Amino acid sequence: MDNYVANVIPHLQQWWPVLIRLAYLVGLVFAMVSFSQAVNQKQRFNRSTAVWSLWCAVLLLNLPTLMDSLSMTVFNQSSEQALSYSPPASPGSVYIQFAVYAIATVGVIGIARGICLLRDTPNQSMNFSRGLVHLFGGIIAVNLVTFLRGIGSTMGGDVQTYIARIIG
Fold first, then answer.
1. Domain ranges, ordered by start, for the chain
2. d(CA 93, CA 86)
3. Measured between alpha carbons, how far is 15 from 46 in angstroms, rounded to an integer?
4. Side-chain half-sphere CA neighbours of 101 within 13 A
5. 11: pLDDT confidence band, cut at 50, 70 and 90?
6. CA 95 – CA 9 distance, rounded (Å)
7. What's this model's pTM, rounded to 2 decimal places?
8. Count of Cβ atoms closer than 10 Å to residue 126 Cβ
9. Are 52 and 31 in contact (CB under 8 A)?
10. Separation CA 99–CA 128 (nearest Å)
11. How many angstroms from the chain centroid is the CA of residue 57?
12. Residue 70: CB partners within 8 Å, gap ≥ 6?
């Protein structure tokens, strides 16, 4: 089983450009929807949806920069450092590396989902808090190793040694 997981990990990193391009595509769709709503005479009274759609389009079109700025704000490291994790040499290190990459992939999807929920804020005000939760949950998922090391440093003692033994 070790060989299968070790073969999957390099292929998982190849999906990062696909996820970024998918975010660009969704951003372009949001931009077109925003401009069509802004020009449409039938939806004159719903201009806030057009503004939020444009705002989300800009964020999705700049997803790598958004991820870097959020990672630098919260964890003081670029997202590329977080995505280039190499675990310590141990028997289960391949599984840990696969889990970290899978969680980081879910984190990127969570960031994009949070932006999409923020887009729907004018229609449903409760989407604002959901969007923020997805956005910051995605940030933590992308920076999982740094987050766990921070928890270990904060708690100290057995927690720190246990986390250091697992993730290095």
1. 2-167
2. 9
3. 37
4. 21
5. low
6. 9
7. 0.58
8. 10
9. no
10. 29
11. 16
12. 79, 111, 135, 139
Q: What tokens does 104 get?
A: 């980081």
Q: Please state, in angstroms and rounded to a whole number, the distance separating the CA atoms of residues 168 and 65.
A: 28
Please say whether the beta carbons of 104 and 83 come within 8 A.
Answer: yes
CA 160, CA 109: separation in Å to the nearest integer? 29
pLDDT tens for each residue of 72-116 = 776 676 666 555 666 667 777 777 878 888 888 888 888 888 888
CA distance 124 to 105: 27
Q: Which residue has the tokens 């920076």?
A: 143
Rounded Cα distance, 70 and 21, in Å: 19
Taking only Cα atoms into account, the Rg of the chain, rounded to an integer number of angstroms, comes to 19
Other residues' Cβ atoms within 10 Å of the Cβ of residue 125 = 9
Task: Give CA–CA dist 34/55, Å, rounded.
Answer: 9
DSSP designation for 143:
T
What mean pLDDT do residues 39-43 have? Answer: 68
79 residue type, one letter: S
CB atoms within 10 A of CB 124: 10
